[in-house]
Known about the structure:
The protein contains five helices and 22 strands. By secondary structure, it is an alpha+beta fold. A six-stranded antiparallel β-barrel has the order 2-11-15-13-12-16. The radius of gyration is 35 Å and the shape is elongated.
Amino acid sequence: MKRRSLIVAIAAGVCAAAALAxxxxxxxxxxxxxxxxxxxxxxxIDEDGKTRLPERHVISAPLAGRLARITLREGDAVxxxxxxxxxxPVLSPLLDERSAREAQARVDGAQAQLARAGVxxxxxxVGVLQAQLELTRSEQxxxxxxxxxxxxxxxxxxxxxxxxxxxxxxxxxxxAAHDLEQARAALMAMRQPAxxxxxxxxxxxxxxxxxLRVVQQSEGTVVQGTPLAEVGNLDRLEVIAELLxxxxxxxxxxxxxxxxxxxxxxxLDGRVKRVEPAAFTKISALGVEEQRVNVIxxxxxxxxxxxxxxxxxxxxxxxxxxxxxxxxxxxxxxxFPLPDSDDHEMAAxxxxxxxxxxxxxELAGRNGISAWxxxxxxxxxxxxxxxxxxxxDGVRVRERKV
Length: 402
């Protein structure tokens, strides 16, 4: 009987010890898990911007006179050379000689501007030829696989930009010719007061576009140089965004841009036209001084899709500074600085045989959602997202059920 009681007591002790060991044994830590996959990776700079016209043309009175009422309204379309206003010259006998000399000086200045515009056209044509030669050379090298696709894309964008520069130069030459014509007409009215008295002088638009603002609408006498109306070509609308100087260094000319939240359906395509060389100081909403710089963006989507967009409209610009089609991706929350590392190395917890394994990784880039890993992980592996403080190297883990 005593022996049987002893056996029962030993068995009870063993069961109690096993129960205590099970009760105080560490439990697997519940964690959120995500897979390592191959996909497209983008790194962008997001900033609010607004639309603007690179060239607003202010139509002024070429001479003092009686202005007839302007019938145009804001938003009306005008053709190049269309009459915007009419003036009846009112010449003062005491100022005829001085006014004539001023008019002659304006004619000389307009002739100089016309010659300057011609030189710029020739320079732009040379730029177009150079860009086309570079693009042809890059296309031949790309067929043999000697250059990266990004170089070919950059040359294509450079060729398009050179063509736009030529168009701008030709437009400036047309405007300079218009200004010369207006200056000569004013000079003719000065030199022939007898024949021009009472004869209306037509003030025309230098470009084809829309009326942006009518400055002097009512009839009345105006002095020379009085602004009458402003016109602009909305087809040349561009976007200006104020970027931090540290971000602007990555937004080089030709960088693709997606224009969002512009008020219409879909997303508009664009590209960085230029980054202005001079920065400025701006106070943020938190009262912090920031160095920012203007980045000019061309809208490359056809005008028909954004014809309702006007000047000074608010938009959101997403500048794509990095784009990789096949990148090894993990959630950005799964990557963290490697503890006790002085080289700013990164790491992630990989689940292996039910345990967390601390794995150093090579981080090539990251955005708000994903991290691009160039080494240390393989596709199909499972990593811990938002690893809790209880997770250590070698700790047992269990995937949390959602």
